[in-house]
Design a protein that fits this description.
Elements (H helix, E strand, L loop, with lengths): L2 H14 L7 H9 L20 E2 L9 E2 L2 H11 L6 E5 L5 H7 L4 E6 L2 H14 L4 E5 L12 E10 L4 H5 L1 E11 L6 E8 L2 E9 L17
Parallel strand pairs: 3-4, 3-6, 4-5, 6-7
Antiparallel strand pairs: 1-2, 7-8, 8-9
Helix pairs in contact: 1-2, 1-3
Length: 221
Amino acid sequence: MSGFATARLKMVDGQVRTNDVTDSRIIEAMLALPRELFVPEGKQALAYLDLDLDVTTGGSPPRYMIKAQVIAKMLQAALIEASDKVLVVGCATGYAAALAARLAAKVTALESDPGLVAKGNCVLAQLGFANVTMRTGPAADGASADAPYDVIILNGATEETPERLFEQLAEGGRLVGVFAANRPARAMIVTRSHGDFGHRALFDAAAPVLPGLERHASFVF
């Protein structure tokens, strides 16, 4: 077994299974997907560590591949079905989108940094993913051209209520992400039913805030 394959197995056994991820589809996807391809070459040795890994290059604002345990638990909570259409917001280089693509029929992956979109497209093509479309655009706007979505995954945290993303959910759709307006930050699931949105806390979690979903500064006299 290669060094990366061994690290991948240790990540799944030590970070994912131990955090109550029992969905065999997610475990199999994480064991199969070479996470190291989604990070800059000089950081590949860090790909399987339990941290939010900065995957930007060239002086761009930091963008992260969030912890494996956090994305795995959110994917499990979303209950993605094989026929679902999924939007991954703030996808960075596309690792979370690739995981979702192994579970769903179609994935749209949104990222504000065009350099990361180019990197992600190359990796996804190399791995043979034909059911993922990466788009460049602000996280807060979503990707209305492909809406509505059965599932929306935030690959990071939001400090604001992402109203435009809520509106892109299909009836019965689920949005899962880390909501950090208050402390402690928590992973939440938002469900759409008959035009209303229900919110439920899943677990305490920390993740870097996605660009465009930061808290607006309030005016102080």
